[in-house]
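Question thread 4412

I'm putting together a teaching handout and wanted feedback from people who do this every day. The idea is simple: show students a protein as raw sequence, then show them the structure tokens that encode its fold, then repeat with a second protein so they can compare. Below is the first pair exactly as I plan to print it.
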Amino acid sequence: MIVENMNKKSKDSFGEELPPDPSRVAEGLRDTGYDFNTAISDIVDNSIAANATKIDITFNISPMNEISIYIADNGTGMDENGLKNAMKYGSKQRDEIKSLGKFGLGLKTASTAFCRKLSLVTKDKSTTHLLKMTWDLDHIAKVNKWQPIISTPSKDETRIFNSIATDDTGTLVIWEKIDRLLAKNPEEYASKNSFNSAIKVKKEKLIKHLGLTYQRFLDKSDERCPNIDISIDMNPIVAIDPFCLNEEKTDLLATKKQPITIDDGKDKYWIILNAYALPRPEDFSTQQAKSQANVSTNTEGFYIYRENRLIHYGDWLGMFTSEPHYSLLRVEFSFGAELDSTFNVDIKKSRIFPAEEIVNWIKDSFISAPRRAAQEKYRMSKIKTASEKAIKTGAHDTSNKVIDLKAPLVENSQMTPIGKNEVDLKNQYGTIRHKIEIISDNNRNNMRIIPIDNLENGDLWRPCLVDGKHAVQINQSHPYYQKIYMPILGQKITTTGMDALLWALCEAENSNVNAQTEEYYEDLRVTVSRFLKKLISDLPDPAEEDEQ
């Protein structure tokens, strides 16, 4: 054990300052993990923090395929000192704690993750002319100093600034020497068209990202935050509501406003949780609404909002793995900037890492019931899809014909109805009074194979009697039907083979059951059905396109 003598005077001394190497630091900070959409969002955050109401993102491509990007806003702008602070790595913290900006690094690191030359053009009410400052990584490497370039904005830059900053204040962020936007260098593309197509894909993804990330700001009817207009090349971005609240079949499953105390209980803040089950695919009001909702395992889970800005979505924060059965479930998780340290918000404002006690509270006290409800909604959707597909394709028609033709050759039992769902069953062991579902079906195609929404005890199959014919009910809600049957319903030979197997199991039961073994056969169906459910639990659900 080390014991420190507290009375002993320290002999520590201070050495000379050891400033980091400017070029190596500037280059190293390019690799902080930004993707393009997150980087642009970090710039937009700064515009919103500056009280902008209009933001436009312009892509410019030169005849030599050199890409430049301009992000202009009509915010409050900056004077010379403000400009210097904004361009400083680790700029001073804003007075407003609720600002979407956080660490004073986003503008620089987000920009240089994709470009080697970053410029700011700005003007506030106190300045008489536009100010411009530039970080050029090549210049930093040449002089090995944190030396910005001061210059006068070009005519094009002034024009772009004035097109948005109509009240004579605002900021224009300029990315030049862009070298990390595309997977290949411009000269490596086969043609100008293929190069333009790659840019178009980037724009389309950015449009969706901004519409989702700033939905509450873009939606004029949302009163939780200031309204803004964002455009790309002057084309307005439309708000995308991940919870589809305008859809009639969206269900609010649970809601909770939970207090969080920090600083030993001195301060109390709130998180808001709302769990929604989206409509089943067939229940969306329009095809466009269904497409925009983008229901999948990649979009289920928590949607994390910091100061009404979406910072992360599409997983369960490590609580669960994403599964198709929960693909309809999306959970709003909203909090204020005061809880940044509690949730360990990262530098890109793109992830949170809640404390273990918060995670456990969500798992134990909030999310279980919504997960069950969403799973049931999904299950009913699959049953409906299976039924519609079976009818559309006549999936069991061949089975019914083949089994009906061959049944007299293998049936070793006779059933005579004597009451509701009760028969006298005669086989090689004698005659017993036996309970079995008796069905009357005018559809002559459903003589032997009867798909049904659900069976009690979760059985996969069960014998029944249809208009006097021995038949089998097949449970469409059982995972075996959904994962094994559904993908092959259009393959008549395979479907007939599967149907024949289950029908044969029923007929074997009819031919051998007696008063002493009735219960054993019931247990056998339950046990086998349960085993099958476990055995195929890790198999993927059929892709939606395979079900159509």
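The second pair follows. I'd like the answer to focus on this one:
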Amino acid sequence: MNILSIIPIFGLILLQSFGSRGQKQSDAPIRYINNTFCKIPDLNQWEMKMFYEPKAYIPCETIPPLVKLEKDDEFYFLAVDTSAVQFYADSMDKISCVISNISRGINTQLPDQTMRESKPVPFDSTTRSEMIKDTVRVRCYIAEKPPRIVYENVFGAYVRYNIITRGRPLAKQPYNILMIALDSVSKYSFPKLLPKTFEYLNKINFKQLYGYTQLDNDALTNIIPILSGYSIKDAMKHFGTPLKTFFDTYEFLWHDYRKYGYATIFAEDFSNANTFNRQYKGFWSQPTDYYFRALSVASDLLNSTKLDNMPHCTGPENSAERILKLASNATGAFRNRPYFGLFWFNSFSHDDYNAPRRMDEKLKRFFQDIYPNLNKTIVFFFSDHGYDKDSITEQKYGAYESKSPFHFVYLPQIFEMSHKDLAHQFDKNRFTLVSPYDIFCTLEDILSLSGTNHFARKSKSCKHCRSLFKEISMKRNCKSIGVEEEWCICVVDEAKLRTPGNIAKDDNSKIHERSEAITTKSTAFYLFLYIFYYFLNHF
């Protein structure tokens, strides 16, 4: 072989060797978002390890429930589980059960804050009792003097009478919308606190929005833009302050979906921390077809226990699991009608950083259970904001933890096959800065793609925000998507990041960039010297 032919090969090897050394020596942070206008780091999930405390799931009961909910076609029934009687009484003859309907207190000044209950009616333990209302209470007694309650619970279901008079759906090729919201969980802590759920979501192709950001550290401030396209400030100016008026006048997009025949659903798991009721008047009229506010109020009145300073067991059930069942049942409840459902969870994440760890296995099973029913369902799984309590915000990366909610979206295969260009654009937009206003635009876009003549509304408070199915600039900044500076984690230089405790460290990115440039130049220089020396000694 000619010696001259070896020199270029050896030179390339040498160049690669020097280049790889430079890469190994680099400690540049990997970034979720990285452009001239915005840098958001992909931090190691263990940055906050000093706050991490593993917590285990604690069941509410060690015996099976006495009464179970059954579904037959589109009808729901309550029945005594005869196999469970042995845990409550010597025989079924000694147990008597009654059922009563639960609804909102419509004759009061604040219907959402109260409930009313119909006269209890006995039901035969040997047969099934059909549910004719969305929410019912069941009490079972031992025939003693006085009678002793051995079982009490509340149940929610999708009773068909709510929508049977609505007529046929107008959407010709509808996509269901399922929204699952967890309070106060960041994108950085999610893989650590919910590792099994995180792994399964990736397995079934849930897509993470790496640049999703919040507008404030309050749930309402972040959900109002998703549901209406308005900032909370603009919404109050346009529709009135919810401290003085009801939310009925707010133009929430579930009304848009309802116009085209969708069954609409809203449920939360903790009545005292309810998004629309904690500090506000709530709704005068029922806002959705299935509005489980009465279920939440009634369940919190059962014999309850707290864990991590939050409701844990309300009656014989875990507060969150009761609503997870509702969300799971929604995916199979509507045979001839699409649905729009929002399910909000506060009871295992709001007041304790590590509490979500207890529910990891339950959340994973929830997604495993619903996955076969998602062939025409688009899922939004997200948090309103990061965790901002304790002293987390005072840490080096505390502002990232407190201001970076997680957000996953699932697009069914039928959508990706029917709208390949849109799905491709969505994948690109996962790596840009995204705000709740963009989610509103996306939800409006989905309705227009569902075989309707719906004209997708744009956000009134963010003129540059767009559907994630449309082309979006990769060079967005916080101002362009309606995020105020106080809540912005999109920075050019990490050293400028301000945490509430004003603790921030210098970023190595510029040092790395200079180091990388020096390494490249040094590699070229040494390669030149080597070739020059080789020729000098051999020719």
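Top answer:
Good format. For the second protein you could add a caption like this: Residues 1-29, 497-530 have pLDDT under 50 and may be disordered. The radius of gyration is 28 Å.
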